[in-house]
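pasting for ref. prot 1 ->
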Amino acid sequence: MDTAKWIASSNGLVVEEAVVLHNSNKLALRLLPCDVMARVAPVHEQNAQFEVDIAQQLVEFGSPMAALEPRVEPRVYERDGFVVTLWTYYESVAGELIPGEYADALERLHAGMRKIDIPSPHYTDRIAEAQELVANRESTPDLADAGRDLLDNALRYLRRTIADHHASEQLLHGEPHPGNLLNTKQGPLFIDLETCCRGPVEFDLAHAPEEVTAHYPEADQDLVDVCRILVLAMVTTWRWDRADQFPNGRQLGLDGLDELREALDGVL
């Protein structure tokens, strides 16, 4: 928090207070009274430049993407072992987005992403990261053998099943769930591009509420269903990482194993 406040102040912004908006593996702060959102991460656990580069291009294309703070140089700032990026803060509008608006925003985001040519991970890289966590008992010491076997088998099966669909691929948000979509006066805006990857659009749709899929043109519902189970398996794996700081993460890990068993009942 002190690092974010110092960086903002040193760039001419007036900062008297930092309010925590989200705190898990990365920290999101609202800096006041300048009203800027700061994202903070340890320097060794970040890909902030990747996120900044994509966000700038999407905003230029008119995509529904939150913008970097215009009063400072749009770049990654580093100090005291942390990296900080400064973003426009948007006031939220009361009420939830209706499914059609959500799907339209995601479709427009995907359209902008198809114009971007930037080296990016593949969605299977994230599966591989999850598989490595499952295999590494030092990284996931509290994961019982039964849960470990379930996750290992599920990740292998789901990766193979998605590949068998031979779906077309493009740059994706990676985690366009409701927590990463702001309902603002400017309309719906996506945030948090650190998980951008290449893959089928159905992988992104699997992070959105189920009713959104019906409003997304030409989505393969069968593939979305498989991707939803994959997302469940990966998210459950993250919760067993000893370094995970997600609130109530261990209970979410237990719940995730139960949901995964039910989802794959009769398959594995």
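and prot 2 ->
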Amino acid sequence: MGSLVYLIQLLFFLFLVEKFTNIKCTSLDPEFAHVDHCYLKSVNRTYKYLSLRVNLLQKPVSRIKVNAATWKRYNGYKPSLYNFTVDACKFIKNPKSNPVAHYIYRLFKDYSNVNYTCPFNDDAIVEKLPISFVNNQVTSVLPVPSGDYLFSSHWYFYDIKRVTINVYMTIF
């Protein structure tokens, strides 16, 4: 029951976003992974999308862990609501094993090639994920504090942190 409550809170946190403000992707080990591109693009006032591509230079990859967390900006960013780690290889085999991770995965899986089990033999790509798709996932509004937020993810390959992806957003 507790994980269901967390899932509901995360749903409303992620999708009351009015504005994505920035995305930053960083390779911490350029010999293992290279960030080819990582950006938000505004096509017009109503269509904005997110794209990123991380080139994996030592394929295949068979051990991947992801740590994801939400942060709220007060006087700097402070922890907010979620901080969890999943074994990505086990998770892809059984996505419902972690409801929060499953929900986040469903947000981008249709716009990504990260949709099969390990070993992973391709570069990691999220292509033209519409921000409107993300915003439209919630049909009713619950009270969520307005403010600036950060969704951070740290990608560990073979137990070494190699890539970080930070998405900044504002909730009105």
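Confidence is low (pLDDT under 50) at residues 137-143.
The helical segments are 2-15, 88-93, 99-108, 131-135.
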